């Protein structure tokens, strides 16, 4: 049985990013499951054979290293995590290559860190590399560079990376394969009769609260990380499907538009490529807290951020850096490119254009962030 909404989503997905979690690829001891990876490879081949461009974001390097080193469980300290990643990444890629060669598909490994997304030139370089690999009909397989990426191992996860790759490529569909059937209204471990949500039109606080605090043993993510990733992609105008990668033929069923997993519908307009980088990818170098009047001007009236509405300046940023704009409750409402350094922003915060002109003799820019360089994240009044 097909779902008409899903059918429309699938029909438009000429490019798809598929993220597969560690617990889908490995058994509880951390050993990679050859049959599972072969099944995934076969399904990826069928998707590509339909003319779609596919990018695979694959966890599993640390989990594979845990298995190959005979550790039994994921280490807690950074050096051992990095060692597991170094051992496991080559084993992971070898299995993918062996599974895809019978289909005549070459794999291409891309290891990334958050810094590759913060730097605009490197960000575009990643995009150009992936698009060129499509020309050669190779399958890009992306993972975090866990061997050197300290913050990613401690705080990050591949769900977030997959959402950023989706925005980078402007792929219409992101698929998150995990070890649960989708998003439940309640934790199914506490309530076996909990409702599986088939479709989520908008990710709000009530949806985030449904995610609970679950976290996998082998991976870094949990349901909260998947909801954050889904929100990042849907806010930029893309669709997301979360499904159970442990189910045989799950991707075949997804692309047959069967009602499996949870579909998250886009709730933002299609965002231009450079604004995706500013608003949803590059990590802010600082924070500007604004008053209620400035919030209304930015969020509801579509205006620039003026210095007079800024109450607090945090961080050490330079002119042209991405900064976060937060309201009085610390909710992030926007991101943008600052016209001033943190030092100069502190000098002019809370001041009118006339006061700044008196202070400096002239005001280089009337706006702290011009509307053209501002991406609104929150919508509507508080």
Tell me the CATH architecture of the largest domain. Answer: 3-Layer(aba) Sandwich
CATH topology tier name of the largest domain:
Carbamate kinase
In percent, how helical is the residue content? Answer: 40-55%
Beta-strand content bin: 15-25%
Distance between the termini: 41 Å
- Major β-sheet strand ordering: 3-4-2-1-5-7-8-6
Output the radius of gyration: 22 Å
CATH superfamily of the largest domain: Acetylglutamate kinase-like
Which structural class fits the helix and strand makeup?
alpha/beta
Number of domains: 2
List the helices and strands and how they pair.
Layout: H1 4-12, E1 15-20, H2 22-25, H3 34-49, E2 53-58, H4 61-68, H5 78-100, E3 107-112, H6 114-118, H7 120-135, E4 139-144, H8 150-155, H9 158-169, E5 173-178, E6 199-200, H10 205-210, H11 223-235, E7 239-244, H12 250-255, E8 262-264, H13 273-281, E9 286-290, H14 292-300, E10 310-315, E11 322-326, E12 332-337, H15 342-348, H16 353-360, E13 374-376
Parallel strand pairs: 1-2, 1-5, 2-4, 3-4, 5-7, 6-8, 9-11
Antiparallel strand pairs: 7-8, 9-10, 11-12, 12-13
Helix pairs in contact: 3-5, 4-5, 9-11, 9-13
